[in-house]
Amino acid sequence: MPFSKGTFTHFTGRLSSIDNESSPGLRFLAGYLKAVDELDQTAVVPPLAQFLDPSATITMNNGKPSAYATLQKMFNQRIEMLSEFGHSHFPVEAYDLLHEDGSHVVICHAFSM
Fold first, then answer.
1. Cα 84 vs. chain centroid, distance in angstroms?
2. Is residue 1 in some structural domain?
3. Cys-Cys crosslink for 6: which of 42, 80, 99, 107, Cβ 3.0 to 4.6 Å?
4. DSSP state string for 39-89
């Protein structure tokens, strides 16, 4: 598969330092991780589903790609097992890749607790 040309933004730091001046992909990442971190998914505004295309898959912990419906089941189990969850305790490293066609790919390395 050929690579497309484009630019990228690199970020290392806490999610709280991603602001309105940050790249669109980094702003997406901050909102997405905030939504993922919420134990009570019914309290998430905007809902996590609004961050994802219905056909989107998420790959976590070097596992197989999972559909949103699978993730929702995991979130329901998580609320029963944990009192706290989040990515905000540690710095994250992310790349927002901007392709010539205007699309973005965000690659993130983060720890959760």
1. 18
2. no
3. 99
4. SSGGG-SS-GGGGS-TT-EE--TT---EEHHHHHHHHHHHHHH-S---STT
Full residue range of the structural domain in which residue 60 is found: 6-109
Rg (C-alpha) for the chain, rounded Å, is 15
Asked if residue 45 is part of any domain, the answer here is: yes
> Could you give the number of structural domains in the chain?
1
**DSSP tag of 102:** S
- Report if residue 49 sits inside a domain: yes
pLDDT digits (tens, 9 = 90+) for 13-33: 999 999 999 999 999 999 989
Say if residue 46 is preceded by a cis peptide, omega within 30 of 0. Answer: yes
For 52-111, how does the pLDDT look when each residue is reduced to its tens digit (9 = 90+)?
Answer: 887 888 887 788 888 888 888 888 888 888 888 888 889 999 999 998 888 888 999 998
